[in-house]
Structure formats: structure tokens, C-alpha cells
Amino acid sequence: MNIEITEYTDGDFSAAAELFYETVHCVNAADYTEEQLFAWATDKYSLDSRRGDLAAQNTFIAKVKGVIAGFCSITDGGELDFLYVHKDFQCMGIASALCDKAECGFKEIYAYVSITARRFFEKRGYAVTKELLAERRGVKLNNFEMRKKI
To answer: How much is the pTM?
Structure first.
């Protein structure tokens, strides 16, 4: 499969926002309750408050046959902030391709990782440094701080 990685533009926002919502509600449903999923991503506009972060960070889009299949972002300080792959494109190497691109040039990277994503990050050499309890809209969600030295 040919995965094209491009730099994010604001024109990608609507597709990324919809992908974010769908991924949270479909891919993460095995590890989080419905209440937690809706606290994390209430609707397809949930990403609106983070639109500026996507523009300010090093954000990459993965496309397969012209369709946005995933996106990720990393801050200049090495925080892998976003990593989402559409439910229909799971386990096809898209998250790995995005991480390969985002991790370039860093000596250490950290991320706040969902229960669902933990195994993926462990396979990439990340280690759990803290078990956390994040709060979204008054609802608690388990996640992990993970770090990787490059």
C-alpha cells in the first residue's frame, strides 16, 4: 500500500476533525466507556478548540489513494501530541509511517497515550513513565505518559 505523508494545511482540518471523532468512538470503544468516549470527543466539532495547535505544531497527514487515513503532530519540544488513524485504515502501517516522519530529528519523545494505543507505542520502543488519570469534561480517563529515546 502506498502511504503519502504530507504537511498539514488548514484545508485538512475538517477531514482530520471527522477522523478524530470516528477514531475515538470506534477504535477506542473496547477500552473506554461510552461516557468516557463522549467526554473525549463529544461530536465531530470536538477538535475545534485544538485547531490552532494543529497549525502551530509539526503536523502531518497520511493519505492512501488521496483519502486522509491518519494524522499526527509533534511539538518543537518533542511531545507527540496527536496520533489518530481512521478506523478503516487500522493495522496498515499508517501510524508507523506518521511516527517515522514525526520522530525525525529528536533525541527524546514523549506522548500521553490511551489504553488502546499503549501496545503500539511499546512496540516502537516507548516505555511507560507514569500512569495517569486525565479529566475531560469532568470525566476521568486512564492514560499513560510514555517516553522514547532515539
So the answer is: 0.94
